[in-house]
Amino acid sequence: MGREIGLIVLASLLMLCATSQSQAAAAPARNPAAAHSSAPEVRSSSALILDETNSAVLYAKQADLATPIASITKLMTALVVIEAGQPLDEELQITAEDRSSGKGAYSRLPVGAKLSRGDLLHLALMSSENRAAHALGRNYAGGLPACVRAMNAKAQALHMTSTHFVDPSGLSSENVASPFDLAKLVIAAAQDPTIRDYSTDGRYAVQIGRHMLEFRNTNSLVSNPTWDIIVQKTGYIAEAGRCLVLKTMIEGRAVVIVLLDSFGKYTRTADARRIRTWMESALHADGGGAASGASTLAGSPPGAADR
Asked: 301 pLDDT band (50/70/90 cuts)?
């Protein structure tokens, strides 16, 4: 049933994207249930709030604009690696090829470290380990070029029409997608139990030589017991700003949140908190019913407004 709902939402997203005005920054549709606050206070440059429960866009801001997505890329890397059926218990080694330079290229995995494919996948999703993601791509059947081709092919299969990948870690600013496209990626990733478990794990330790090295989740919300997060991923490079995507439960509703190009270290998580507060207030005001004033995916797109 979850997969069928996901497919319905993906199809609905296509209908909305086809009618969306790409040159304008989209604003939320009026929601009578939240008349006291017609829109959440979102400071990220681009954003999308999708109520997957009733296939409704609750808020959109530059949601069809493709921009760099940084380590959100790793969700797609994980999808193609898992779908390739490569054994997660196979031992792989970090090599000099997995080293990258530049802002955001930090890694705690030393060259020579040996970990299972599952461990590398875990660290890539949970703590956004760049060398782990690169090693996964390098050890993909056919090598790194084949992995990137698979990522772009999967994007096409998910109808992510403005998406393009050139590397599996997200360190390249040429990895781009729109919030509408990333909503499709989040919904697809949420179908996989391994991605769900790894991306929402609070901490994880791996053995490097004689030592145990502990990693923590890059998203502080996963350790907050008041949040029920199904899948999530953070990202950052200078060109992308701070990014965050997640699927979470709010008042019993499955909600996908996409936040791109947030300025400052804490803006993306603060935006997510403000969104949840806004939704809770709206649903309580409506007696717990659907956000009846939201723009449904099968209907007209939200109107244009200033960014």
From this structure: very low
